[in-house]
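Narrative of accomplishments. A recurring question from our advisory board has been how the design workflow behaves on a single, concrete structure rather than in aggregate. To address it, we present the structure tokens for one chain from the evaluation set, followed by the sequence designed for it. No filtering or post-editing was applied between the two.
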């Protein structure tokens, strides 16, 4: 049984995940919590190699190859990094996780969503986020924020990214307890305040129950 909290940050490229994750890390540390941040793909040594193929491959990557690479990275990340950190009682803030696979490879690339959910289960081996923050932003705004210097996933086109956004919103409908929607069209400060309130609520509530 893990003692920490596992919080995942999800949403489109340019939705502000990394910006907010860093802000929240600082906020929680100042409150005295033991926090680590991490990301997918590429947080482990093995994952770094996988990330390089995923984001910077020079030849075209088959859709199914892309899917297995993301899952392989996750399996390694969960066993080698996330689970040990949670066992130590840390709050783990993770930039992208299982929902990204469903949204991007499932809804975006058209892989079978139900099958992907099962493969995700193998990759996480019993782990599930205590909370997922979905930073929802209009595709046009997100693409503007990403700018011209796009990696392979970011450069996949507006139609692809609209499908991805729709996929995230489907996941929200299916998992209303776990996933909380944040309007990421707003300013960085407004988004931060909303994010902070949701996280603080979870962390104090659960800690309260544990101590009761
Ligand atoms: N709410 C916001 N309003 C305006 N600009 C923002 C907002 N949030 C983030 N940005 C800016 O948009 C850019 C992308 O933000 P960020 O890197 O946090 O997104 P991301 O979701 O992590 O994207 P990726 O999935 O590509 O890593 C950055 O330049 C950041 O400063
Ligand atoms: Mg980011």
């Amino acid at each position: 049984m893990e003692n920490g909290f596992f919080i995942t940050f999800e949403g489109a490229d340019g939705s502000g995940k990394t910006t907010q994750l860093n802000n929240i890390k600082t906020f929680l540390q100042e409150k005295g919590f033991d926090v680590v941040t991490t990301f997918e793909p590429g947080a482990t040594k093995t994952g770094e190699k996988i990330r390089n193929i995923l984001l910077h491959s020079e030849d075209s990557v088959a859709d199914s190859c892309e899917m297995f690479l993301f899952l392989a990275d996750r399996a390694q990340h969960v066993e080698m990094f996330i689970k040990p950190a949670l066992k130590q009682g840390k709050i783990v803030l993770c930039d992208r996780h299982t929902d990204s696979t469903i949204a991007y490879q499932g809804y975006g690339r058209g892989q079978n969503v139900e099958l992907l959910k099962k493969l995700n289960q193998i990759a996480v081996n019993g782990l599930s986020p205590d909370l997922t923050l979905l930073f929802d932003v209009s595709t046009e705004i997100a693409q503007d924020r990403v700018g011209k210097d796009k990696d392979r996933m970011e450069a996949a086109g507006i139609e692809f990214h609209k499908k991805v956004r729709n996929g995230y919103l489907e996941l929200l409908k299916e998992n209303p307890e776990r996933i909380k929607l944040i309007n990421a069209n707003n300013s960085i400060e407004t988004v931060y305040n909303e994010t902070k309130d949701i996280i603080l609520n979870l962390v104090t509530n659960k800690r309260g129950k544990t101590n009761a």
